[in-house]
């Protein structure tokens, strides 16, 4: 910490927080319980440097989840990004509508140079927003080419695409949406491809599960009518749904199916995008050729709010003819898509990843961490499965390895809490589905070194030992 830490100021901030902040993903009773013994202070993160953050009590934490939700890929305290953003904001902070900007062009060119086959960048603010813009494009293409019929978008069980009503309508985690219906029509669910839980799916084979899982998508297309399905939106590696890596053979078959039925493949890279899995984009691990790619969190590592929808030139072509026909242009805007902070930060973020060799580091440290997690699973029978790609890893906890019955959620939560007490922040998936919130998540910044990984592993080892005695 820089020494500017003033206890009086901080206690005032905590009280202001208690009085006025509505925290994300939080049940507030814990912060304002009539019984003082039950009341906890909201946690306030005051400062960050590299892989570490400090809270209002001055306690240091190793951040094993890059800002809570897989975002701060290049780590905290990057003056280079802050300075570039500062300079740009003084020169020109914002202009929107149909105008472009220097950082907007520069960043788009850089991004596209890492995405062979892709061509156009559409700026927005959040992952949900970028995804919705992709859904809007599918609908507009349906109106333009298919009399409105081919408008349905398929999404997968356990995938998540955002928090707005329409992105929740494409959400495969019911617990996140149950209280917010009615939903937007035209979004159709396909089964998950989680090999570890394949035994829960009717008819899933032991061999060639990946091809079978992809074939389930074709079944849904045939049941709905191929002439009604315009898009398929998938995470390359499912994040919040349980860190689900695709089984062998899955993506090749998905790609074939999209081609066969003329369905646009929309890859949601909001979590995997910009380095997280050791490649620039998660889809690049699997030879996928998407039509649309959305990204947000890692694009600027949290130094500015930015998301992008990137399309092929073929998709763009469908929107670029004579604008006297409203079906020929994408009548959409994002107010803060015109803020120059995002692309400026994005450009620096990518330069850091390149200059510091962070993709290679992610592959090496990811492999190292996967091995360490596997070693932990030899020691703790509670770990049923370890999976992930790059520095995007999960350990699924089970009460019984034979039946794969999930470990009790309260105990999984206790592991996260125990690590927090040890000064290590880790995550867990699906915080509100009884029985399904059993995967510990790890996504340290791409700058992680062996010592950092060892500290996380030691904390988890200790926590598992204490919680599951
Ligand atoms: N897609 C995925 C895969 C996500 O994990 C998230 C956020 N966790 C989103 C979309 C939504 O992004 P945002 O919260 O920025 O709207």
From TrEMBL:
Q: Which family does it belong to?
A: Belongs to the class-III pyridoxal-phosphate-dependent aminotransferase family.
Q: Which SUPFAM superfamilies match?
A: PLP-dependent transferases (SSF53383)
Alphabetical list of PROSITE patterns matching this protein: AA_TRANSFER_CLASS_3 (PS00600)
What Gene Ontology molecular-function terms does this entry list? Answer: pyridoxal phosphate binding; transaminase activity
What is the name listed in the Swiss-Prot or TrEMBL entry for this protein? Answer: Aminotransferase class III-fold pyridoxal phosphate-dependent enzyme
Which UniProt keywords are present, listed alphabetically?
Aminotransferase, Pyridoxal phosphate, Transferase
Which metal ions or organic cofactors does this protein require, according to UniProt? pyridoxal 5'-phosphate
